[in-house]
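Example for tutorial group B:
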């Protein structure tokens, strides 16, 4: 970068702004239906906060899978997870008066 104004820096102050926000604590305020899909062998995302969110959010549904963090993208599992998502949407977001929409 010699002779240029560009500096190889990143402002990380935004990282501190979110430290007081606790999604699990706010779960009781979520009024929309939510689907939480939990991989039982996930080592990247902590399971306990996901489980607490599912118990605290009034309209939450928790689905558990014997998967690690990235196995949900494997061909042998992706159809099952996607099917569960579509079923959730149909069940929770379908109009009560018209569940057989025609395009």
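The residue assignment follows.
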């Amino acid at each position: 970068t010699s002779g240029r104004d560009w500096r190889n820096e990143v402002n990380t102050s935004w990282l501190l702004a979110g430290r007081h926000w606790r999604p699990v604590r706010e779960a009781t305020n979520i009024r929309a239906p939510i689907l939480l899909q939990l991989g039982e062998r996930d080592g990247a995302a902590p399971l306990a906060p996901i489980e607490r969110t599912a118990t605290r959010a009034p309209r939450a549904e928790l689905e558990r899978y014997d998967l690690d963090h990235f196995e949900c993208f494997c061909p042998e599992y992706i159809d099952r997870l996607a099917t569960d998502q579509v079923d959730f949407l149909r069940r929770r977001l379908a109009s009560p008066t018209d569940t057989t929409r025609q395009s």
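The CA atoms of residues 39 and 65 lie 5 Å apart. Compare this with the pattern of hydrophobic and polar residues in the output above.
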